[in-house]
Amino acid sequence: MNKLLLTLILHRSKLKNNQGFSLFEVTIAILVSSAFIMGTLQAMAINAVLQIKSERQAQANFVIQQDIEKLQAAASSMDLDYIENSAVLNPDGKTGSQLCFRFDSTKMPDVRFGADLVKELDQLLQNDKYSDGTPNTGTQSDPAINSNSVFSSAGTFKQFKTDAEGNVLFTNGQPVLDTVKKDSVKTSDSKKVVVQILMNGSDNPSDEDFQNNLLNKNYRLVRLITVDSSTRYDVLQVYYRVGEPEDDPQKDEDGDKLRDDESGRKSIIAENYTEVIPAAVAECGFTL
Q: What tens digit of pLDDT does each residue of 128-157 get?
């Protein structure tokens, strides 16, 4: 009797073990696996987007640093001898001492050494060429530099902009939220700014500017040159920005030739700030 009962129990257990997984168990396993796979794929996609963004920013900062080196080289080479022998910067053929006297005049703000450096940089843009030697008409100054007019005809910014840390870059006299005391406002003097387009990308693969794209996306590098009246136009304050291009003045509220940032859509991917002083300033003994 006991033997028969034991046989029945073992037989029933064997049948139960051979039934396999239930439909409910299979469904749960599929859902868990799908969630894991979807999470992994999403993480991989986000990582790829962040990596491309990081590489674009690195390339943007690289082209900025390249131009900063050119800017510093131009400033350090612009001594009195250089200006005296330049038909563009010294059309009247004045001597070094005469140049120092002329640039020290408070009534001629557009003919000081800082403004002449802007003229020299403008000449470099006018002579810019593509790799095949053809003229690059996309690089330009706004306003166009002519005669002694540099900053007097430059545009002003209509709104403030801040960098990644919230530091105010341009205000044009508008009230700006204080970056330290968030509950107060401050006002800054407006600045005349010369915008120089240094590099253009393109959405057209057959366009020569397409080779300037950052990982196949169209970006523009601009140099924004301004001054403070306290420095008598000798010290140039230079802001660099890399962002998506914008040529419609109705949409470009701050006039930097780049698309303005919008909620959820950032245009500027790299910024930098530097100051330069032409070598002739020290030779004339100007006190800054």
A: 888 888 888 889 888 777 666 788 788 876
The residue ranges of every structural domain in the chain are 44-283
Mean pLDDT for the stretch of residues 76-105:
84
Q: ∠ CA(51), CA(53), CA(57), 5° rounding?
A: 115
> Could you tell me the two tokens for 117?
């450096």
pTM, to two decimals:
0.74
DSSP calls for 7-29: HHHHHHHHHHHTT---HHHHHHH
